[in-house]
Amino acid sequence: MDLEAILGTALRSAVGPQAAVYALLAIGLNVHYGYTGLLNFGQVGFMLVGAYGLGISVATWGLSLWAGIVVGLIAGVLLALLLGAPTLRLRADYFAITTIAVAEVLRLVFRSSPATPITGGPFGLQSIANEFYALNPLTRGIRLGPFTYSVNVSWSLIVTWALVLLATILVTLLVRSPWGRVLRSIREDEDAARALGKNVFSYKMQSLVLGGVLGSVGGIMFAIAGSTVNADAFRPQITFFAYAILILGGAATRIGPIVGAIIFWFLFSGVQGLVRDAQGADLLPGVLSGANAVGASALILMGTALVLLVVFRPQGIFGDLRELKLDA
Amino acid sequence: MPETTPHAMDTLDKRPGVAKPDPILVIDGVQRRFGGLKAVDVDHLEIQRGVITALIGPNGAGKTTFFNLLTGFDTPDEGRWIFEGDELGGVPSHKVARKGMVRTFQLTKALSRLTVMDNMLLGATGQRGERFLPALFRPGWSKQEEANRVRAEELLGRFKLLDKKDDYAGELSGGQRKLLEMARALMVQPSLVMLDEPMAGVNPALVQSLLEHVTALRNEGMSVIFVEHDMDVVMGISDWVVVLAEGQVIAEGRPADIMSDRAVIDAYLGRSHDEPETDTSTPAPDGPDRTEE
Fold first, then answer.
1. Is B135 in Cβ contact with A188 (below 8 Å)?
2. Does B111 touch chain A (CB under 8 A)?
3. B105 touches chain A (CB under 8 A)
4. Which residues fall within 8 angstroms of residue A142, CB to CB, at 6 or more apart?
């Protein structure tokens, strides 16, 4: 077993573009769940419309990168409005069910054969980020300890983490304002907020749009990082990974989503590396030795780790236990 | 405890739906049905400005449903009501509150994971910082926030919660939460305060202090409606009592009159407690002044 190599790979994903994309998704979810109490189980749907908004604009319609980004963001806003209008007046559980269904329906529609002329169907769309990489001012890749990112990866990495930082600042400013206070009051008890003259529906919608658009930004950067969009990348578990990140870091905290994303990807990638190596060295029992076992075992271990986290540190890394223990 | 001092409302007729000299709220034909059950069926009711009106009635009389209807938390099947000259039927709850009609809840709704101060600040109306884009620029709203904070501290001082202002509301005792909820409602600067069972679940030692706060609201010129089913509490502080039973207003009047009202006793103890429905010959135990229903 080459522990050093495994550690290297784990570190590499911990700060890689993927982790930054997930941080964006989790920041959006933090607005929904952490501050407003909206159980959005379809964050991946916002990611999908952002990615496809860019992909379709560039690859199908031949528009520029910037037009594609704008389309991706508008798609996020529209999805939030469409999703929220009928469900935000209903009880929280209806909203939760609708979000997970809508995200999955979107994925199936975008990958369906009839949609091929626009979305590329099951094959997705390629070469959608050439313009982005043409803007790359870097001449060589970033070197981080034992490994070096390629020039292009370095560029998307810098931009994505910069967006994570911007999103964090934006959300921090907002949640510390009276606007954020209204969101938190809705999380605690929306009838009380109503009785004090707050238009709860409007605030929930604003929260849904803000967090959703952040998810779409994540989707756009995800599409750029891979230079492709493919519907099968937007499976429901992405939302749950984002939740895991949020809970790991601490919901309703400012840097929870960032640190959560880094630790999550460090562990996830590290565990996968360990399992793969252990398999190679024939250290694992038969059931865990198949080709698919790496991903599955990593998920099992991550699941166990999450259970332990919730049992022993339910507030996450940055959460306040005192706050958590109050009856909501 | 019958009142002895004369009161401006002494001269009013003691019948349901009587006109008040200066009503702040006028209710007409409000009905709310749940299936075949008429939970609320109020023909006409006027609430006098600047006094404490108690809404009493046995369990299930429709008091809370009536409250929910008036404050926009529930929608009536029929009816209209006018508050300060504005028709409020069908108006959503947050707009009702902004008009100056603010309610509290039977089960206290302290916002647990907000500090006591944040609970108070939330009540202030017309905050620039509560709009999405202005929220981003602190200088645009910090002055207003500071003014609200000063007002909140005054109110917290009055309700003896000032030293708790940085605690989470969820850390307060039940009685303190009731006080906070009342103080928070005052941050809205209401003209009519609607208290849903403000004494429910409160330690008897605190009841007196809560009652004093309610009286203080009236003395500052606010109108108060409160729901209660403890008769003793009602008799002590209210200027006018409205009795609801099976959704209808069966009596209204000065507290002393209500105490001896036959219809009220029937409603509280059950119609058949001492007489069959059709038999009118049995003398009533508590005075003969039965009000028509």
1. no
2. yes
3. yes
4. A148, A149, A154, A157, A158
> What pLDDT is attached to residue B272?
52
CA distances from A46 to A142, A150, A251, B100 (A): 30, 28, 20, 40
pLDDT in tens, A222-249: 999 999 999 999 999 999 999 999 999 9
Comparing CA positions, the residue from B183, B214, B185 lying closest to residue B199 is: B214
* Cα–chain center distance at A287: 31
DSSP A300-326: HHHHHHHHHHHHH-TTTTT--HHHHHS
pLDDT at A115: 92
SS3 assignment, position B99: coil
Residues of A (118-177) whose Cβ lies below 8 Å from B: 170, 173-174, 177
Say if B146 is an interface residue toward chain A (CB within 8 Å): no
B142-150 long-range CB contacts below 8 Å, 24 or more apart? B145/A178, B145/B121, B148/B121, B148/B124, B148/B187, B149/B117, B149/B121
Look at residue B270 in the predicted model and tell me its pLDDT.
63
Q: Report the complex ipTM.
A: 0.88
Asked if A213 and A80 count as a contact pair (C-beta separation under 8 A), the reply is: yes
Residue of B nearest to A185 (CA): B111
Is residue A322 less than 8 Å (CB to CB) from chain B?
Answer: yes
Nearest CA of chain B to the CA of A96: how many Å? 22
CA B112/CA A150 separation, integer angstroms:
49
The predicted-structure confidence for B20-66, as pLDDT tens digits, reads as follows 888 999 999 999 999 888 899 999 999 999 999 999 888 888 899 99
Other C-beta atoms closer than 10 Å to the C-beta of A26 total 33
B-chain residue closest to A177, CA distance: B135
CA B116 to chain centre: 23
A189 to B109: CB separation less than 8 angstroms, yes or no: yes
Residue B209 structure tokens: 């202090």
Per-residue confidence at A280, pLDDT binned at 50, 70, 90? Answer: confident
Contacts of A34 in chain B (CB under 8 A): none
- CA–CA distance, A186 with B205 (Å, rounded to integer): 32
Q: Distance from B273 to chain A by nearest Cα, in Å?
A: 40
Residue B36: left (phi > 0), alpha (psi -120 to 50), or beta? alpha
Residue pair A244/A302 in contact (Cβ under 8 Å)? The answer is yes
- Which residue bears the tokens 């603010």? B102
pLDDT at B35: 87
Low pLDDT (below 50) residues in chain B: 1-3, 273, 275-293
Interchain pair A184, B104: CB under 8 A? no
Taking an 8 Å cut-off on Cβ atoms, the answer to whether A195 and B104 are in contact is yes
* pLDDT value of position A272: 87
Q: Does B75 touch chain A (CB under 8 A)?
A: no
Q: How confident is the model at residue A327 (pLDDT cuts 50, 70, 90)?
A: low
**Cα dihedral across residues B208, B211, B217, B221: positive or negative:** negative
CA distance B145 to chain A (A): 8
Contact between B135 and A178 using a beta-carbon 8 Å cutoff: yes
Q: Which of A44, A186, A154 is nearest to A107 (CA)?
A: A44
Residue B224 host element (H or E): strand B223-227
